[in-house]
Amino acid sequence: MDQGSLIGKLEVLTLWIYRFSILNILWLFFSILGLIIFGVAPATTAAYGVIQTWMRQEQTKGTIVSLFWQVYKETFIRANTLWLILLVIGFILYVDFYFIFRLDNVFAPVLLGIGGFVFMLYVMVIVFSFPLLVQLNLKTWATMKYSLIYAFTSPVLTISIIVSFVAFHYLIFQVPVLYLFFSVSVMAYIIMAVVERNSMKLGLQKN
What we know:
By secondary structure, the chain is mainly alpha-helical. The chain has one domain (3-202). It contains 9 helices and no strands. The longest helix has 31 residues, at 3-33. The protein is globular, with a radius of gyration of 19 Å. It starts with a helix and ends in a 5-residue tail after the last helix.
C-alpha cells in the first residue's frame, strides 16, 4: 500500500468519525431542545434523513446542522405522532405482561408466548418506523405497516441489527464517553443501510 493510498483512507476514516460524532451531538441537542419527550422522535428521524443523504451521495446546500434542522422541522408532527402511538402500545404491552406474569393457570404459558410474539413485532416496528418516515414519506399507520414488511422480508438482517445493537453498546459501554459521540449515529447508519437495501429489493420509492 503506497503512502498516498494510506493517507486517502485515513482521510475517509476521519471524515466519517467527524460525521458520526457531529450527528450524535445534534441528536442529543435537539432531543433536549424538544424536552426529550417531544424531541427524541424528530431528532431520530432527522438523523436518518442526514444519513440517507450521505448514502445516496446527494448534493445538498448548507451544513450537516442545516440539513438536520430542515428534516427535524419537516417531520416534527409526524414523528411525534408515531412516537406517541408507539408509547401507548408499549404501555399496553407492559400492562398485559404485568398481569400475565401473575397468572397461575394453564393458559399462562400460551398467553406469554403470544405476548412475546407481539413484543417482537413491536420491536420491529420501532426499529424500522423512523427511517421509513424519511425513506417513503408515508402517513403514520402506513409507516408502521411497512416497517413490518421490511422486517419480515429480511429476517436475518433484522436479527443482525438487534445483535449489532447489543454488541455495539456493550463495546462503547467500556468507554462511556463514546456514548456522547457514537451511541445513536452509528446504529442509525446500520439500520438505514438495511432500509435502503430492502427498498431496492422491494422496488419501493419515496413518494
